[in-house]
Amino acid sequence: MARIIARHGAELLGAKPAPAQIGILYNRLSYMVGGSEPSLSKLGNAERDSLMGLHRAFSEQQIPVDFVHPEDVLPNKLGQYKVLFLPFPVMMSREVAEGVKCYVQGGGTAVAEARLAWNDERGFASEVIPGFGLAEVFGARGDGHSAGRKPRAADGGSNELPGLGAPLTVGGEAFEEELDPLSGGHVLARFAKGEAAAVERTCGKGKAVVLGSFLAMAYQRRHEEATRRFLTSLAQAAGVIPEAEVSGNGTSEIELRRLVGEHRQIVFVFNHAKDSADVMISLLLPWPLRTPRELGG
Question: Which pLDDT value is given to residue 184?
Answer without folding.
Answer: 97
